[in-house]
Design goal:
Elements lengths: L2 E7 L6 E6 L2 H10 L6 H4 L4 E8 L2 H13 L2 H11 L10 H7 L5
Antiparallel strand pairs: 1-2, 1-3
């Protein structure tokens, strides 16, 4: 089963958050709706999906999430800008988003 590692922000070059999920569309919607109001993402209004990648299992997803969380800010910005240089909210058009990330659906 696919799992997704993602980076959300509040704006271009804004605060960044790295997460992992089995359902990227649902998780993105939860961030937008601030389903969990006491979380870091809700406090900083992080609701724009800037980057995501797909792995084959939850185990690989958690491993990759931990790896990205250890990265410095410049490295995270670099991977966002390689695929999404305009910092478009990828959750606004899923077909385009998967295409931009190089993922076949």
């Amino acid at each position: 089963m696919n799992h997704y590692i993602y980076i959300i922000s509040n704006k271009k070059n804004g605060t960044l958050y790295v997460g992992e999920t089995g359902n990227i569309k649902n998780r993105s919607s939860q961030h937008k709706r601030k389903v969990h109001p006491s979380t870091f993402s809700a406090r900083y209004n992080l609701d724009k999906l800037m980057y995501f990648e797909v792995v084959d299992s939850k185990e690989l997803g958690l491993k990759r999430e931990k790896q990205l969380k250890k990265w410095n800010r410049a490295w995270k910005i670099r991977i966002i800008e390689e695929k999404n240089p305009e910092w478009i909210d990828l959750s606004s058009d899923w077909d385009l988003s998967f295409e931009m990330m190089g993922i076949k659906i």
